[in-house]
Fold each of these.
Amino acid sequence: MGYKRWIFSFLLAASQKLLAEDKTCSLPNIENGRIAPYYYSFQDYYFPMKRNAKLSYSCLAGYTTESGSQGARINCTTRGWAPAPRCYKKCARPPLHHGVFSDTKLSFKIWESLQYSCDSGYRTPEGSSGKTIQCLQDGWSSVAQCMETSDTCSAPDLSHGHYHTVQRVFNLNEKLKYECDDGYLTAGGNTMEEALCHPQGWSLFPKCTKLQCSLLSPIEHGGVYPSKGSYDEGDVVQFFCLEGYSLEGPELIQCYNFGWYPKPPVCEERRNKCPSPPQPPNAKLPSPLRTFHHGDTLHLQCEPPFQIRGSDEIRCENGKWTSPPKCTVLPLIPDTGRSKNMEVPLLPEMERNCSSPPVVKHGLITSAVNPWMTSYKTGSLVEYRCVSFHVMKGPKAVTCVHGSWTEPPVCSEPCLIDEETVGIYNIELKWTLEELNFLHGEVIEFVCKPGYVLPPSISESQLLVQCVNGELRYPKCILRDPSENCGPPPSIRNGILTRLVGTDYAPGSSAEYSCHEYHFLQGSRTVSCSRGQWTTPPICIEPCILSHEEMAKNNLDMRWSFDNRPYFLHGEFVEFICKPYHVRQYSTSESDFRVQCRNGTVLYPRCIDMQG
């Protein structure tokens, strides 16, 4: 009898495990889309659906799938519905005065582009004769507009800042002063700056001569494409950054014949991290490669025979380093009983020239140096830069000192993740990245592939691997023992364990979770023990609690009386309207007043008083 009971328990646990693994996809929440009505009526019967099940959905009128069709099919996978069901609003052809569109269609699918050109005597707000706009998730990428050309500049809208004058139209050579709000900086890194109304210039920051833009200044940690000596009016230049650096500001800029110079009023959020610290010529940094944050300090040292001038401390402030000190040369003097540290004029007979500057592997000379020059005077300085994806270590310049060059920099090579080797070592990247290139000094986080663990003799820290001059030391994971038991099932935030099948957490054991009231369960409700590890538990997403204080602050009321409830589940929509005698702010649209609860957060639109 006991044997039969054991067989029954084993079969029941195995069948529940198979069901838990097979049923992975819950009822999809499709904004502006729907599935067949009977799925909603009999939700508990149809969901969760089995793996490899297919489901059709259709978009509401005025919306399409990303491919432009009215409906599509999605597949149930172990990670949920794929591809994720989405419906995008079509873009209606926008109004345009004093210009013409290249296409006569009345509506456009998401990602479609529309080109327009302005009539003679009119230009786009950027100053060009035409422009291409794109249909995005929230509408057109920019307003289609043709403005009459004149010798004036209009002050653009300024987010996170304010102007020092109520004047909004400026004549040529007039200046506009603006200031950023607390926590924001201008594109130049200041809290206050001036813009000049100029007849020609780059739309963002490079200076242009009349009808032609000069070569851009070198971009630290990046470059421009295409790169050439000069650019004609209408040319567009694209910025790119080296691996490990992010672009602040627009990716594209245009050379045009009218606009703000040298920079338009832009406020960027204050940065907390600083780039690699500056290293003046003939100085060295005592600290290893690491990330620096606001408030961090470093102390510089000079290479012999140089001596520091000024404070040896530099500080990371708002994403930039304070000005570093200089290292000056101590000339060699005859030993006449005077102190060796005394600085005296260099005697002419002691001056010795240097030969050609040293060659740096993966490095280029950036100074204006005659390539045929083979003799350099004492005090001459030559600067280097590393080629793309290589990190400079040491001072970026060498100095000629009494016939010898100071120590040149080293350009450390990047690391490229070898996917074949990663597979052999049974590891994978902890974070999904588009690129597999890592700069020298960067730390790469690995994890063991599912079903694999580190050997007992190796610590978890071995999964953190630093790129050292193009080389990586991969850790190796081994196969888990299939008979290994699991520990207690993982606990989840805002949820509880409701059922446990099996004892001693043996392979095949399963556990089931439920979320606290009003919390949204995302993922599989059930986990199972396999090779000493539980499968991924679900997440309980918090509901949204409406703030009447925020609603009053933004002059909002609920659109529907039945929505006057304390909680909104993750994924639900809340609709607002403006209080009486108030209208929506000019920067918001009707769609902004239908807000979706996401991870316990609601973004409140804003209404303003009709009178002011």
Note: The mean pLDDT is 76.
Amino acid sequence: MTTMENHITQISREDLEELREAFHKIDIDNSGYVSDFELQELFRQASFSLPGYKVREIIETFVAGDTNKDEKISFEEFVSIYQELKSKEFSETFRKTITRRDGIRSFGGTSGNSSEGTQHSYSDEEKVAFVNWINKGLAKDPDCQHLLPMNPNDEGLFSSVRDGILLCKMINQSQPDTIDERVINKKKLTTFKMTENLVLALNSASAIGCTVVSIDAHDLMAGKPHLVLGLLWQIIKVGLFADIEISRNEGLMNLLSDGEQLERLLSLSPEEMLLRWVNHHLQSAGTKTIRNFSEDIKVVYITHTHTHTHTHTQLLECLIVICVALPQDSRAYFHLLEQIALQEESSIEIDMAGLKERNLDRRAELMLQQAARMECRQFVTAHDVTSGNSKLNLAFVANLFNMHPSLQRAQTNGMEMAHIEGETREEKTFRNWMNSLGVSPYVNHLYSDLSDGLVILQLLEKVNVHVNWKKVNNHPYPVLGANMKKLENCNYAVELGRDVAHFSLVGIGGENLSEGSPMHTLALVWQLMRRYTVLVLSNLGVGEKVGDQIILNWVNTTLSQKQKNSQISSFKDHLISTSLPVIDLIDVIAPGTVKWDMVKKGEKGGLREADKLSNAKYAISLARKIGTRVYALPDDLVEVNPKMVLTLFACLMGHGLKKVIH
């Protein structure tokens, strides 16, 4: 008996019939063979879904051993492959979970707040994409060698975040220098030290604009799949979107439509900007544009069904509608890659022969092979393209833009446009703070995204101001009167801020917010952030109205009780530029946290600027590591920005008082 026969006899008769039925569904011409590019769909029909990564490995192995080189797979060969996979260790992972639908895995009881039996799900395709991205990005990091490379096909990703190191590294990859690596625990990792790393990662993720209000260190320690993937996607997206703004790439001004004002382009979200970028290149290619990264990318399959309720006219009308809506699928990406190569005068010539491929999954695979030649085959498989996975297609395009923007510096009417300034540090801090609280919609541009009042009203609720949402105009606004609806929201926000929250809003009206006035918007936002920061102090019994002097007195009293000499006279005190008062305070409220050999003390002449910045980075990361949700940045300490300094000390005060109470 041959090896093949041994494989077949090891499968039950019932399983064998199911495999045969799946095979016949793919072998529609009854040839007795399926093509290699149909293998992924064949496994899916056999209820044994595999990510594209694994299928490509199987195909490469099969082709290498295929004596007749016909790239076709018989039923017997398929059974042999299936049996080998079932016998491998990774197949156990698939049986531990329930596949609810293609690529979606469900599991029970993974949320501490959920009742027994609650189901959560996660995307297997996203897991594979994120693992591959992490493997590539951190491949050379010496601190991650105990974790990498991860296998995309098992559940190792979820346990890999347990010690917090990988998450901290990913945050720094997306936003460099967010975490001072001197603060990360890397050796002799006890449960306590791993928890510290996870707390540091969560608070740092919050500082770069990730929403982490429903995640804690215990969730990550347990490797809860939906929470791990959700957090990783936010972190990855921050990095992918970082350079998709005009101040970082003024070539994006080429995307201005005829007669369009620059302000409109500046207000676009990164997703909208990427869509314009793709369509800019598609128009250059003379092909039709796309409207999104889901429906216009995925394949529409037309299935003919017999029914007595449709007339011939109705069927014809239905087919016409389908044909008109038929998306670009991978053809859009073929043209995009070709235009990039042409505009960059690249030595790589994109092979467009794949456009003639009739099998849509195979066409997508051929497109990705061209993307790989440009080192941009990231995030998507052929199936992700043809199924229209919007998240992964967006990531694929964002990475492609970052690698090959292919945009020349824009000129208008023969004159170069003025340089566009990026957002200030203060604006970015406020924006990240809002987004970390989970406001909707996500704030990409501080002034334009707050101009309808909706985000401000959400923030008012988060600082315990009651909002009557029946009085609020929600999206979508009518075309006529939209500005008036937005103004009404802004007027209501100012009214609540002034009369209920008792903010100082002299000279600020709803029209200032709806017009996106920087000065007036920042004045209100700062008071919202300050109230949010000190609210915890009120809840701890410090007083309903916590003034600056109360916080200042607590800082100095706490320092003096432990014989610390770094007293400060105000939140503008020049001593704060050394960060020594902050580090001393952390040493008092969390003894043993500070490694003093990392701290620059300076001589009588004071600290150099580089040493001040080093201390500031260390202090901010230490504050986050001990559990404070700090949004201040190292530069805020070095430059002694009194607003951000206040929030930092208020957070440390809240943490210190909680420890005393508990």
Note: The longest strand covers residues 104-108.
Amino acid sequence: MLSAKQGGKHRRRIRVAVPAAAALIAAGVAGAMLMAPAGATEAPVPTFGIEPGVSAPTQAELEARLQSAVKKAERPSRAARFSSGATIDPKIISGTTTSIASAPWMAQLFYEDGDNSFFCGGAVIAPTKILTAAHCVKGKDWKSKGVIVTGTEKLATNAGHGGAMTGVWRQWNHPSYSSATLANDIAVLTLPEPIRAQPIAITKSDDTASYKPGTSATVYGWGRTTSTNDDISATLRKATVPINSDATCADWSLGGEFVKGQMVCAGQPASGQDTGTVTACNGDSGGPLVVGGRIVGVVSWGVTDCVEKGAYSVYAKVSSYVGAVVPRVDDTNITGDHRADILARRSSGELFTYASNGTSFAGRVSEGDYSGANVVLQTDLNRDGRQDLLARTTGGDVLWSHGEGSTKIASDWGSRKHLVVPGDVTGDALPDLLSVDSAGALWIYPGKGNGTFAARTKVGTGWGQYSQLRGHGDFTGDGKADLIARGSGGKMYLYKGTGKAGTAAFSGRVLVRTWDGYNAFDAAGDITGDGKADFLARTPGGTLYLYPGTGKATSEIFATRITIGSGWQQFNLFG
């Protein structure tokens, strides 16, 4: 994989993966959104009874794991091997110490596995989500052996670190990650419960400004601070480094290790020693490279000891992976297997959940009587990692049913033609609510991440022409929430999300299908688990079909349909 040439910059390099051992008033429209949750509400819609069945380790168990892990992670051996098969190498060299207040989203990732224990960095991107590197995750059992520490600048190898410890519920790494080349080196860990650390947003898929050569970026971590020993830093450090062009990075890594589009390199060329070198290193693996308050890179790899003359540190290019990461954050996954599950309701009102098996569904589970509602939608408004329900009663109240009860968030919405919870529409990494009023105007209610909403913004009028308006997730692979609307003659239109609010929230519609053989549709999210939003369609005779998403914003938006089964006419799938 590497150049075998010797001498000068053509000599063989050793690639190193770098870990170490709401105020909102709906004026002028029928109904009002409440200023804030009204607390537990008497209503005919019960609290959604689904819990993910997470068995979180106790604090004593986490402490035992941590103490075992730090024995190895505190001084990683240079001969240690990682899941990538590359020699480990950690640090921010020539950086400065900083406080957790300046980077409250920083996370320490300890993996306890005896002599194979190690340490990585990470960043909180949602209350239950940690963004890190795939080489820190692939092939490991983080649920049984991992400890996440947040809320402190002190490395948790110190007994007085003062941070909060939590375990890991589930893990995901990019399916195309290569341990040989470190391509697609990005991963997400899901925690069993929300943490208090303030999240940081990831960059947008169309972000080019952050990668302009010379752009100032900041890397954070607890990695090695010198090339002369293996100690990692006892305190969080940061360093400012310039973004380099793809050509510069490719010219340096003559063996072809640098992959344009998947990687970005940063920093001035290393001096050959600590003095004059500013770079990430072992122990910084998985940590963030930040520009303008958003993560643009994840520490991925470098050369042995990190200071070889002319070398740079290399990061996974986050803008290229937004479409894969966002579905891991904003999902409708009840069972914890990275696949969206669906709701189905009989006309009598009994609600069922169907867990996805990828291209089929497991046996249904009854969730109780929802006959008092005429809309039931799945969402996670408070980003606690547990699925909630948004339900509209026959009296017009909109209730948010969550782990602590039912909260009324709107009243007099009986005349609203459509309610949709597509995810993050406005680009702030928080889930939003959309509605179409009786006059056909589409409104966005920007979520605050706690069940309350900021002032609504108007997208436009004319949306009353659609008989169906569906959306949950990203149909086009750019990490932005989209909508699919059904017009006359069975014409299906894609409204591609832009990540903005107001009239600019969606691009002009694109005709993607003409379906006149179906009478009901659902957009539940990523049912197949491939990171792309999928679609369900039902015939009048009751046959349900799954249309896997392709990520294309054209007539090829869905792959060949898969038959789920018959008998679905007994259900009102969509409230």
Note: The chain has a mean pLDDT of 83.
